[in-house]
Amino acid sequence: MTTAAPARTRTPRSLRWRVVDIVVASVLAVACSFVFIAWNVGYQGPSALLTPLLPGVQGLANGLWFLAGPLVALVVRKPGAALYGELLAAIVSALVGNQWGATVIVSGIVQGLGAELVFALFAYRVWTWWSALLAGALAGVGASVYDLGLVPGLAGYYAGSGTQFGAVYLVSQAVSGAVLAGLAAWVVVRALAATGVLARFPAGRARRAG
């Protein structure tokens, strides 16, 4: 007489934030803020080289500022993670000081919302390299909407620019965000997961299973 093997139960996926999620998301966001602070100065060289090539193409140098959203989201994998990461990093950057003042907080909101939208569209279930790429790209689109003065009631950095400049700038920031934020975040998460520090997160468990 044989006994049937017990049925496997599947732990339901929780989208609720844990204390460890908040702590790690905050640490990652603050770490990204230091990248932002360094890039507030470092971007000027690449931007100066790109600008004469085609007006608007300097947006290719801006992708690092979109890193926090995709990075925090890929690790925490909870609703609001991309927005939280990008916004907190922008707030720290503003508090430390930069040439744009508190307006970087608005930039953080629109960039974070752009990345957040991608993960929300997939119901917070898809965490692949290409979803990270899309998140970075849409963060760049969100940044462009603000920078070009397209947010009602807010004057962006390039408000009043012509259509050609706006189109080139938007595409440039989307491409830069896809590579320097989305794919870069994916690579960083993979590297962190390989060390075991993300063992308490789905990103770490997925890396071990793969």
Number of domains: 1
Q: Please compute the radius of gyration using only Cα atoms.
A: 19 Å
* CATH-scheme architecture: Orthogonal Bundle
Average pLDDT: 90
The N- and C-terminal alpha carbons lie at a distance of: 38 Å
The proportion of residues in beta strands is under 5%
In terms of quaternary structure, the protein is single chain
H/E element string? HHHHHHHH
Helical percentage: 55-70%
User: Sheet bearing the most strands, described?
Assistant: none
**How many DSSP E strands?**
0
Question: What is the molecular shape?
Answer: globular
Protein model, in words:
The protein has 210 residues and is mainly α. The chain has one domain (19-198): Arp2/3 complex 21 kDa subunit ARPC3. The chain has helices at residues 19-42, 44-50, 68-76, 81-96, 103-121, 129-147, 163-195, 202-209. α1 (19-42) crosses α4 (81-96), α3 packs across α4 (81-96) and α5 packs antiparallel against α6 (129-147). The two termini are 38 Å apart. The model is unreliable at 1-11 (pLDDT under 50).
Annotation keywords:
globular; 210 residues; 64% helix; disordered N terminus; mainly alpha; Arp2/3 complex 21 kDa subunit ARPC3
What is this structure, in a nutshell?
This protein has eight helices and no strands.
Secondary-structure map with pairings?
Elements (H helix, E strand, L loop, with lengths): L18 H24 L1 H7 L17 H9 L4 H16 L6 H19 L7 H19 L15 H33 L6 H8 L1
Helix pairs in contact: 1-3, 1-4, 3-4, 3-5, 3-6, 3-7, 4-5, 5-6, 6-7, 7-8
